Amino acid sequence: MAAKATLSKQDIEIVFQRLSEEMPGRTKTAKGPKDQPDPFRSVVSCILSAQSRDTNTKTATDQLFALAQTPDGILALDDEAIATAIKPCGLYNNKTRSLKKLCTALIDKHDRNVPQTREGLMSLPGVGRKCADIVMSFTFDADVIAVDTHVHRVSNRIGLTDARTADQTAAQLEKIAPDWALHDGHFWLIQFGKAVCVSRKPKCEVCPVNDLCLYFAATGAS
Predict the structure, then answer these.
(1) Nearest-angstrom CA–CA distance, 101 and 131
(2) Does 95 qualify as catalytic in the annotation?
């Protein structure tokens, strides 16, 4: 099967340039769903956010961190106490086990410090590419485009990437995005995906990149 076409390097640059002009980007209020005061709580929040609405994740993290805020503190809790606290975010039994494994790994292998690299973060139990990139971006202010549902959809719809999974999209964006766009690219793409390039009925008529978009060219959407 032939690979789907993607935009040229020049057009990719133009897309990011236009989105940087149209979207608010990394503002003071653009804190994302992992708005936590330290790296440990950011990682925990990220793990709890899997298959959970932001509001439910916040409730779960608030309840958990009211009980404990450190790896040692969480390991001192019994499983039932953790599961009860994080129940709003779903999959609470699996997430309880993941949290205990995470805390053990941080204590035994990292001297209680959260790694700042993608490789280091992904070595932690329960942390995948998406979670690692979110922590790098929001907590450590790294130049990385974290890929969530909106970023994955937009990137592949426009033609920035040609990927089946969010992790593949993240890997492709890392290669093709201009260096200057890596720091705020996540924000432009997610804001664009929520305001214009929405899931069911994208607002192609007001899209700032519709003249470049492969989806628009193929469907004639208007």
Answers:
(1) 16
(2) no
Interatomic CA distance for residues 137 and 149, integer angstroms: 16
pTM of the model: 0.88
| Number of CB atoms found within 10 A of residue 178's CB | 14
Q: Across the chain, which distance is largest between two alpha carbons, in Å?
A: 59
Of the candidates 11, 95, 100, 148, the residue annotated as catalytic is 148
| pLDDT score of 47 more than 50 | yes
> What pLDDT is stored for residue 204 in this prediction?
96
The average pLDDT across 205-213 equals: 97
Token couple for 6: 């993607």
Is 148 tagged catalytic?
A: yes
Question: Catalytic residue among 58, 95, 100, 130, which?
Answer: 130
Q: DSSP secondary structure string, the chain?
A: -PPPP---HHHHHHHHHHHHHHS--S-TT---TT--SSHHHHHHHHHHTTTS-HHHHHHHHHHHHTT--SHHHHHTS-HHHHHHHHGGGS-HHHHHHHHHHHHHHHHHHHTTPPP-SHHHHHTSTT--HHHHHHHHHHTT--S-----HHHHHHHHHHTS---SSHHHHHHHHHHHS-GGGTTTHHHHHHHHHHHTS-SSS--GGG-TTTTT-HHHHHH---
Distance, in Å, from the CA atom of 192 to the CA atom of 211, rounded to the nearest integer, reads 16
Contact 189, 201 (CB under 8 A): no
Whole-number Å distance between alpha carbons of 221 and 79: 51
